[in-house]
Fold:
Amino acid sequence: MKKMEIWADSFHEGEWFLTNLSPFCKIQNTNYIYGFIPSHTLQIAESINVNFTVFGSYKSWGNLPAKIEKLLDYGKPDIIIYDRDSDTIVLAIEETAAVPTGNQALQRCERIFGSAYLKTPFSYLLPEYGIHTDGQNRRTSIWPTLLALKLSIQFGVPSVSFMYSDSDNPEDYHKGTGLKSLFEYSYLQIKKHLNLLDENEKNRLKKVLSDQISLMCTFIVDQYANIINYLPSVDQLRDQNFVDALAQKILDKRNSGDLNLDTFLNWPCKKDIGGASPLLGHINKDSFLSGIDTAVENNNGYVISQGVGSKPQSKESIDQWLLSQAKQSKKINIDYSCPVKSFLKTENGNYHITTSKNITYFIDNIAHLDTAFHDAFPKRKFKLSDLLSNHKDLPSFLYVSNSLKPNRIFGDPFTGQFATFSNLFCFTCSYERYRSSIIYLPYVSAGCFYDNSNTLVQNKGLSIYLLLADIIICNNGYVISMMEKGRLYA
Amino acid sequence: MPNDKIIYSISEEIVRFTFEVHVKQNAPAWNICFTNPTAGPWKTITYEMPDSSIKIGRYEREEQRPDLILLNKTKSACLIIEAKDEFSKICSTDQINKSFKVFKKEVKRFQSCTNLTNYLRNNLCFIDGFLWYSSDKKSADIFAETYYKETKSTTPLICILINKLPDNSLSCGGSLFFAPKTDKNDHIISAFQELVLKRLG
Structure:
């Protein structure tokens, strides 16, 4: 009997997956190896049974396949379907019950990116509508779906969002088409991998996938104006003929004749879109970001966000985190400097740590970043443009994180946020860079990036930064080059 | 993959799930109303019946929660469990006090749940439960003594130990304790027996 493995964050998620496959293939029997490892036999086709063993909690197993271990470097998907005989990951799945809004929307996106980068088909099951912590009904963000769409084109493997619930039934798995479509798609993908699809099923798989891509495009067009004030290629996304051709390309892994994707979903330069770009302002003033704001005010760049919140922190926490950051600087013999003289106090006695309310900037020319950098950090005797090698003539994307707690920058939501933005804003549909990618971390010491033996730390955040960032500007203007695998410029 | 190629190390997830499988296979009188797997989306407390279900509650995003809640409707008994992969993690003063606080919160939830029948709500007996991996059967006695000394609880206590057998399979054993100076309750003893746990010691 053919054997396959389900790897999951927990046994329940693995069993949940198999239970939801049961409308498509009957569960023949279930037992528990060693009294706890679920082993389900499913009749997947006429007279053909497949045994699925569920391995819950990735860290517990000595038989974790190397391919899955590599995938986990970019974050842990909830469920991974694996065939040991062919050493193939058939599908990775992420599912969430919480409606992804604000930062949370991007929290899992490094997994979406990592899977596509490693040529692994990925599915994301998420609620279209849900109840936010403020008790209000919210519609989900466009970012995971937009990223999935672009990745599907870039890497030639389907990365698909499946949405469930509706505005009257937020967070309800059983409303909307997402849940049923995901499991029909998963069932057909498993059968495809096992060469068991008949002609009807082959056509059905194409239909399910193309319908889903069409739904993704419709959702993006319908929802983007609530999230950002500019989306490129929106007319193409509205054109059903274009969307059908796009789905065909993703399905067949080859360029469909006259489908030109050279500039599809590329964010243009300011000079090419015109119009005023409203800045959101700042809470705590930062010298470097003031220079960037000046560049935007002078029409040398733009922003697309529509609101960034602030999460004030207690004085005790801030003092403790600043002390830890200073220790990280001391570890590699550099100076730590608080970039604002004093944090703005809130009515209840906490302090804002947010600098600019914009976390993404598009700057037409690196020269404007050079000027802002020189003015803010006069002690640094190098130019950012000199560190960008063959990317220095490209326009720039600047990502800002006001993270203060040491090492948070390597975790959620920042890595997912950066993976999404850098991929969408800096890479074409052929995964060629069209914009340099720069990170600014006003509070983070460069020392956080190195261990005690002065080598780069290893974690999912760094895996993402090494792939998608060019340079990282840390506290006090120290710069780490990701292009040069962690070289520090002081 | 042949079973002998499966290599595992004990984690909290494995400990908790082993007990869940034991309950489902051996203790049909007990219903698992809530489980708290790693990174799982499960946040509702529900009593599932063959054709319907009773919603008992729902956890807020950051709310402290136990690892398992089990209900034995026939015996009007509710077992609330904290699970860890090793004894040292469960038998610390901090953990005991944290769990005790969570248990008290859950008792209030059940006692005020209008979806339960008046009879069940007013007669439900609560049992504090702790679940860990250990081959040392004495650890249950040590824990019970520490627990009652630390919390001054008057609630019955069930300690469940997961143990690895020579063939690499895991088994569940357990002991029932009553608080010092409280009477043993036949109803609770009977509910404990329906968990079909191997006797410790």
Notes: Chain B has a mean pLDDT of 92. The interface with chain A takes residues 1, 3, 5-11, 13-14, 17-18, 21-22, 25, 35, 37-43, 61, 167-171 of chain B (CB under 8 Å). Residues 3-199 of chain B form a domain with the Trna Endonuclease; Chain: A, domain 1 fold (CATH 3.40.1350). Residues 93-111 of chain B form the longest helix (19 residues).
